[in-house]
């Protein structure tokens, strides 16, 4: 059974750097065809694709946020970390991590419960 | 605004059929990239409904189906049920292999 869980601060100040950790079980990020992605959703708004890291360490970023995002993996700890610099109130959102399946053309088949991050001074 | 365009809302009576459109461009859906559909019930994480135009993960009823034509895709729900009331999102990739989502469609079961 695949599970993912996001963790990190619930409140960050403007200009600070956000660090979120996705801890997963039921799969290995060293297995061919596996990826973990990050998606966010501001309150009452649509989903936004942020980043995706693959088993081979290939990384993809949203073009509009690429300069602010870094995604890394720690295969031994079964974790993926997303950092976002220069946080702004518009970055207030629920942040989800999800299991990506290359065989299914990178669909996200299992999602974490999400973690709400508020950006405010 | 979102790269993929969806109608903000659709509605239907129980038992009816509804469709939700997802319009992209030649750099995403029209370029041949697959379209995935997610269902998000209130207060919960999204759930994968359809992947690769018209494939259902295990456990998803066959009342849900997907299709694609040109630069657009559609999700069809037949035999509408009260529990189908949710937000629905389409997702694809663009020519730079970055993911894109639609703006979401709220389905109301009358």
Per DSSP E runs of 2 or more residues, the count of β-strands of chain B stands at 9
Distance between the termini of chain A: 40 Å
Determine Rg of chain B (CA atoms, Å).
Answer: 13 Å
Order of helices and strands of chain A: EEEEEEEEEEE
Judged by helices, strands and strand pairing, the structural class of chain B is: mainly beta
Low-pLDDT stretches of chain A: none
The biggest sheet of chain B amounts to: 6 strands, mixed
What portion of the residues of chain B fall into strands of 2 or more residues? 35-45%
Q: For the terminal residues of chain B, how far apart are their CA atoms?
A: 28 Å
- Average of the residue pLDDT scores of chain B: 95
Topology:
The complex is a heterodimer of chains A (121) and B (110).
Chain A: E1 3-7, E2 11-12, E3 18-25, E4 34-41, E5 48-54, E6 59-61, E7 69-74, E8 79-84, E9 93-101, E10 107-111, E11 115-119
Parallel strand pairs in A: 2-11
Antiparallel strand pairs in A: 1-3, 3-8, 4-5, 4-9, 5-6, 7-8, 9-10, 9-11
Chain B: E1 9-12, E2 18-23, E3 36-40, E4 47-50, E5 64-69, E6 72-77, E7 86-93, E8 99-101, E9 105-109
Parallel strand pairs in B: 1-9
Antiparallel strand pairs in B: 2-6, 3-4, 3-7, 5-6, 7-8, 7-9
Identify the notable features of this structure and list them briefly.
heterodimer, A: 121 residues, mainly beta, 7-stranded mixed beta sheet, 4-stranded antiparallel beta sheet, 53% strand, globular, B: 110 residues, 6-stranded mixed beta sheet, 3-stranded antiparallel beta sheet, 9 strands
